């Protein structure tokens, strides 16, 4: 899908620069300043998720990627529950390092990881179900999207790419500060319906949104009080719904 992102021409590191300085040369595109129209945008995004093929057949990425300034552990793995647990733990540990310990918050996260995440994600690859690794943008909000002023085609940029469960992309849209919201999710699901088990769609979406809220809290520590409360509320909801198995 060459029209869905600017073409890259060159990248690298400048010589004799302190601190280390890097460059990236892309197409210069005339972009609209309005919020992108959901119908075509969500159709293109679903097309990317449906048609992309992981080079290994697993979840991950061939090179290290970053969500903002934060390195992501994208080492290949075929088990989505394991892969997401590792990624979420990486960001939670970084959030604690950035914003300080909070014992209750940390204890609830442990319960989430050990008891809830397996009950929510393992069914995606059990009972004969197969889960396709899809190429996702990984940081998809209105600030990283636009439309070409001439063609009207949607454009995405500034990715935190990986091959992942396609629904992970939509965890960003659950957050109230992101302007895409329910309308965009509904348009997307018309093109790419929820994975089975469908009845766990909303719980997966809530779980996936936690990673994006953690990234926000790391990047903007002044918001940690509000964002940590949102994370805590989501974790408590899931813990209450998915208590430890007997």
Strands side by side in the biggest sheet? 1-2
Mean pLDDT: 96
Q: Major sheet, described briefly?
A: 2 strands, antiparallel
- How far apart the termini lie comes to 47 Å
Number of helices: 6
User: What oligomeric assembly is this protein in?
Assistant: single chain
* Overall shape: globular
Strand content: 5-15%
The ordered string of helix (H) and strand (E) elements is EEHEEHHEEEEHHH
Q: Determine the structural class based on helices, strands and strand pairing.
A: alpha+beta
CA radius of gyration: 18 Å
| Helix residue percentage | 40-55%
Question: How many extended strands?
Answer: 8
List keywords for this structure.
globular, 246 residues, alpha+beta, 6 helices, 8 strands, two-stranded antiparallel ribbon
Please render the helix and strand layout as text.
Elements: E1 8-13, E2 22-26, H1 38-51, E3 65-67, E4 70-72, H2 80-99, H3 103-121, E5 134-136, E6 145-147, E7 154-156, E8 162-164, H4 181-191, H5 201-219, H6 224-241
Antiparallel strand pairs: 1-2, 3-4, 5-8, 6-7
Helix pairs in contact: 1-4, 2-3, 2-5, 3-6, 5-6
């Amino acid at each position: 899908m060459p029209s869905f992102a600017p073409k890259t021409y060159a990248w690298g590191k400048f010589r004799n620069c302190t601190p280390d300085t890097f460059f990236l040369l892309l197409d210069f595109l005339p972009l609209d300043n309005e919020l992108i129209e959901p119908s075509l945008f969500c159709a293109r995004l679903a097309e990317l998720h449906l048609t992309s093929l992981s080079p290994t057949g697993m979840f991950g990425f061939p090179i290290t990627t970053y969500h903002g300034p934060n390195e992501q552990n994208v080492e290949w793995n075929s088990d989505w529950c394991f892969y997401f647990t590792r990624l979420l733990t990486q960001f939670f540990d970084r959030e604690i390092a950035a914003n300080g310990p909070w014992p209750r918050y940390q204890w609830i996260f442990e319960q989430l990881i050990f008891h809830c995440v397996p009950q929510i994600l393992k069914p995606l690859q059990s009972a004969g179900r197969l889960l396709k690794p899809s190429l996702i943008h990984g940081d998809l909000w209105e600030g990283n999207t636009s439309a070409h002023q001439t063609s009207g085609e949607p454009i995405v940029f500034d990715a935190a790419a990986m091959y992942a469960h396609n629904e992970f992309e939509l965890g960003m849209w659950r957050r109230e500060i992101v302007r895409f919201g329910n309308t965009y999710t509904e348009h997307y699901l018309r093109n790419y319906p929820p994975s089975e088990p469908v009845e766990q769609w909303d719980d997966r979406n809530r779980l996936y949104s936690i990673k994006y809220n953690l990234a926000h809290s790391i990047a903007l520590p002044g918001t940690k009080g509000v964002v940590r409360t949102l994370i805590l509320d989501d974790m408590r909801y899931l813990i209450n719904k998915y208590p430890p198995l007997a």
